[in-house]
Structure formats: C-alpha cells, structure tokens
Amino acid sequence: MKHSFLGLTGALLLLPCMLGTASCGMGGEGTGDSSVAPEPSGSGGAGGSGGAGGSGGSGGSGGSGAAGNWCNEGVQSPGAAPLQMSWDIAVDHANNVAVTGSFSGVLNLGDVPPVHAYDTGPDVFVAKLDAESKPLWIRQLHVRNGEGYGVAFDPNGNVIVAGYVFGGVLCDGLPPGSPVDHDLLITKLDPNGNVLWTRVFSTPSDQRGFDVVTNSDGDIFVTGSMQPGSPEGSDMTFDEIGTTLHVEGEISAFFMKLSPNGNVVWAKSFGNTLSTALSVDSADNVVLTGSFQGATHFGGPQLTSEGDHDTFLAKFDGSGNHLWSRSFGGPGRGLAYDVAVDSADNIILSAEFALHVDAGGGPIVADGNADAFIAKYDPSGNHLWSRGLIGLTESTLIRNALVDVDSADNIIVGGTYAGSVDLGGGPLVTDAYDVFLAKYDPSGGWLANQHFGTQIDDEAMALRMDQTGRVVLTGSNAAIDFNGAPKVHNDILPPGPSSFFVTWLAP
Fold it and tell me: Signal peptide span per the entry (predicted)?
C-alpha cells in the first residue's frame, strides 16, 4: 500500500507531502445523500458540542459539511532540521509502527539516541514506535545519499525497508554502487533495529524501490521503477537467478520476490509502466497497482491506455504467475496511489484522475484540476462500486489519495487537497494544502470526513489502520493542528514541508 510518486514520462515526479491532541468536538451530520455516487453533495450540519477534558473541544463547523470524529491519541515529530521526509509507515500485530524516509543533519525522535547523516545527506532512516506513540529506536541505514520509500513488518516483527541509494557512496563493506545512478536498496532489520542484511542492486539501469510487502511465510515482495541509466544502460540483472530485465520505453516497473534471507526468487518487469503500491491477500496473492502509458501487459491480454496515462490493477500468485489484470482510463491523466485488501480479499483502489474516468461502473466526472476516486473490486477483479472524491472548483487539487480498511471492512481514505472538495459530507475548504480523512462503509456509503491543517502547507504521505481501529498517519509539515493538539513548527526553513510527523487518530 502506498504513496505518491508520479510522472510517467521522463524523470519521476516525486510529489511531496500534516499534527495535534486533546479533546475534540464532533460536528453535526450533513443533510446530503451519503449513498455511492460520483458527486455526492449535502449542506453542512450544525456544529457539535465540545469534547470533555481541559476546556473542552470546539464544536464542529456548520455549513461546511459534517465533521468526522477522529481524536488525536498521540503524535511524534522530530521538529526542526534541515530536511526530514517520511514516505511510508507499517503497523504490526502488536500495533507497533515503523516509519521510513530520509533526513539531513541530525534526526532526533523522542528520547532514543539520535542519528547523524553522512556529509550533507539526505540519508535513509527507519524508526520504530510503540502503540502508545513512544519511539523505541531509530536507525540511519548504512548508505549515503538515499531515500526509504517503502516499509513493512514480516510475521516475526522484522522490519523491511525498500528505497534507493544514489551516487555509489555506500558504507560498512557494502559493494560499490553506480557513481551516477539510483540503485535499488532493500534492508531487513530485526525487531530491535539490528540490521540482518542489506541488498544493493547496482546495474546499468536507474532503479528505485517504491513499495514492499511480506506474506505469511515472511517472503518479501518489492516493486519500483527502472529507467535508462547514465551512461545509457537499460538492464537490471539478477545473476543469482539468471534473469535480466529490460527497460521498455522511458520507464518500466519491476516486481520481485525475495526469500526471508534476502535471496532473489523471481523478478519481472512491465514496460511503459510505473508501479506504486502493493498489497497481499489472505491466500498470499499479491495485488499490484500503478499507471502506464501506451501499451503494456502483465501476463494476460495487452492493456492500452485511453488517455495520457491510465491506472492498472494486476493480481499475481506467490510464485509470480499472472492471475488477472485490468486498466481504467479516460481522456485525461490517471495516477494510481494506493491499494488495500479487506477480510474477504476484495480490493480497494485509490487513484487521481483528470477530466473523467471509468473505474468499471461508468464515468466519474472531475470538477477540479485533479480529482480522485476510490473503487472496490472482488477477488477476481470484477467491479463492485466506485465513487469520486470531487473538487468543487476548477482550481482544486487532490493528491496522495491513501487507503486502508478497518476490522469491519470500512474504508478509510486520507490525502492532501487544496481548494474546495466534497468527500460525501459537504464542502471542505482550504487556502493551503491540508490533510483530509474520510470513512466509507463496505458498500461505499459515506460515514464521516474531517480535515486538518493550518495556513501553511501540510501533506499526508502514508496511512495504515492499527488493530484498535486507529488511523496511523504520516506526512510532512511546517505546522499542523490535529484537533487542538500542539502544533509542530519548523524554525530553520521558511514555511513549507520540511519535517515529518506520525500521528494516531482514534474514531
């Protein structure tokens, strides 16, 4: 499951990337229809009463749609530093949280020993926090100049990070990487933060790992991008299995499986494609999503894009065999962000689109500059329902549409928006980039929505549900307020996304 990288033609466009606790008021319900529809609407409800504790929370705002009822139960942020970004989080069965990203300078988190970047950075970090939001450890992975884009727990509580290292500068006896390109980085740590192994794949192509998941046996699945390297090279070779992948077009996606010990089991590539997110179902099948341009195939019939870029969804068994694949398009650009699987192995997809898109249930029409949709499919890929997350003005932008499911198979969607958006409960309006959350029932009916932010830009980057039903959210911020909790300010850089946060939001 995942995040926000996209720009399929040429170099990758890495879209960037929200914080607060205390008592919360709960807004009144909107009067609009909450049924599944591309463009739900409703008038704002009356403000709710303040929550208990302290001086009491503020009531919800009337006239701007119903508020959600998430209250902050904890937050962590390193605060001021030259540059800190979080890209992904994971939650284990004990509700511990792992977060990965990049940093420069010194990274402090709670009372655990800080870590220091080599030279100017940015370097890769991974941190673990307990269910009460207390940091347990933080590690700087032993490479210089890199990013941690994906993180996962395996069934034994080990932590796996996927990303890249740049410029061939590695440490601690690792083999030299490419002096000018990005090399795929995969690292596994034990529950106490000790590095078990690290793999760096230095090949002629330029590769980055974007997402990582594990199955019930602890096998590891990684996906990411391949581009021609410098000097020109377009291969990604895995000598241990005798496989060479080739870049087709300007960018290709790779998809690979590693054993728990880090040995490559198999690897595949898909031309003219960028894959961004993975999820594993109860049978250890793997669902892959992303975007493509032109023509591509995943092992079944060829898929051809209708517009600039289309969204794809593909399913493979644990041996890498293609089960099915399908695409969703329209005349504008479609960019997949995230994917989740519920208890019945149904698949929930989130993606950005422009103009209009057909996710399988008929056209969803965009009103904003960039809108989003969520859609649900059965285990065989058949469309169950879809709905738009729709901007109300032409200038509205929605991005980083993140998705997960709770224990009742309700769907939680988070992301970033600027302008005015209707998530099902009436308009949410902001002048800067703010963070939103929305909740839908298993049939796609709207249940709640809420937004968080200040007059300074804030962004959501990754979202997971823990076992207690809390939303665990990470992103970047200069200052943000979650229901009255302390704001986090960065005093070194001008206002803008320059520090990260992890927050726990309870229903």
Answer: 1-22
